[in-house]
Amino acid sequence: MTMRPAVATALLLSTLASPVWAAGDAARGQSVFTRCTACHAVTEQNKVGPHLVGIIGRPAGSVPGARYSKALPAAGITWTEADLDAYLAAPAKRVPGTSMTVGLPNEQDRADVIAYLKTLPKP
Ligand code: HEC
To answer: Whole-angstrom Cα distance, residue 75 to residue 54?
Structure first.
């Protein structure tokens, strides 16, 4: 089947006009996660930060033996994708007093890394 250029362009544009909440790409998220591995493991092992196995649905600041700020366990969060997105965008804004200082300013990076975290096996 051949398409006239104008039709092909219109189809391409409609594909690019993605929703505001772009779906996360777990494969890409795995490479974004290399920015987290200095402090976080995806096996049940704590580093500078707590491990992130089963993070969705886990109460914030609840991994035994992890070194948390006072603020995070007191924040009363049970991690949802929306909470993770807000925390990763600006940790100290979502949880004032948190000891995690680095964030992920790019929305697509956040969506991708959250999609990746969702693929990790539950503990
Ligand atoms: C420089 C070290 C460092 C880096 C890099 C880092 N974090 Fe953290 N992260 C921490 C620390 C420390 C905490 C604990 C914060 C607290 O107790 O306030 C934390 C907490 C978290 C939590 C909450 C965990 C829980 O048990 O409630 C999540 C989720 C998280 N980080 C995700 C990420 C992701 C995703 C990245 C990569 C984009 C990342 N972090 C990069 C140090 C880091």
So the answer is: 19
- The closest-lying atom of ligand 1 relative to the alpha carbon of residue 68 is 17
**Domain spans in the chain, listed from the N-terminal domain onward:** 23-119
pLDDT digits (tens, 9 = 90+) for 65-106: 999 999 999 999 999 999 999 999 999 999 999 999 999 999
pLDDT (tens digit per residue) in 5-30: 665 555 554 454 444 456 899 999 99
CA of 23 to the centre of ligand 1 (A): 22
| Prediction pTM value | 0.86
Report, at the CATH architecture level, how domain 23-119 is classified: Orthogonal Bundle (1.10)
What's the CA gap between 98 and 59, in Å, rounded? 15
Q: Cβ(111) to ligand 1 under 6 A?
A: no
Regarding the beta carbon of 71 and ligand 1, being less than 6 Å apart is answered: yes
Radius of gyration of the chain (CA): 18
86 lines ligand 1 (CB under 6 A): no
